[in-house]
Amino acid sequence: MRTSISGAAHPASYPSLSKARAKKAAKFIDSLKLASLEVHVAEVRTAVLHPASSTHRQLTDAQLAAAGITPGLVRFSCGIENIEDILADIEQALAQV
After folding, report:
1. Is the pLDDT of residue 89 over 70?
2. Residue range 39-86, pLDDT digits in tens
3. Is 64 in contact with 52 (CB distance < 8 Å)?
4. Coil, strand or helix: which one is 31?
5. CA nearest neighbour of 81 among 33, 39, 38, 40
6. How many CB atoms lie within 10 A of CB 79?
7. Please, what is the Cα angle at 51 between 96 and 90, to 5 degrees?
């Protein structure tokens, strides 16, 4: 069984936990105000995406787990905006989850 850095079991191993994490990831992404939802990250602005439902959506659950792409994984690419604005956006979005 794969584990995270904290030693917790890989969320893909527990379907109900996986659904909960996917919902939290979606809530976090929806709560961002500065970052834009992007399928590609070739952008100078701050961008965010949910790999499991976008760039890797064609993979099976087993393939996603093998690749380390969990339902709660969010890819966040910092852009050229002021770092304090980016951090404030992340903090306010996390507070919504």
Report:
1. yes
2. 665 678 898 888 877 777 678 878 888 888 888 888 888 889 999 999
3. yes
4. helix
5. 33
6. 14
7. 30
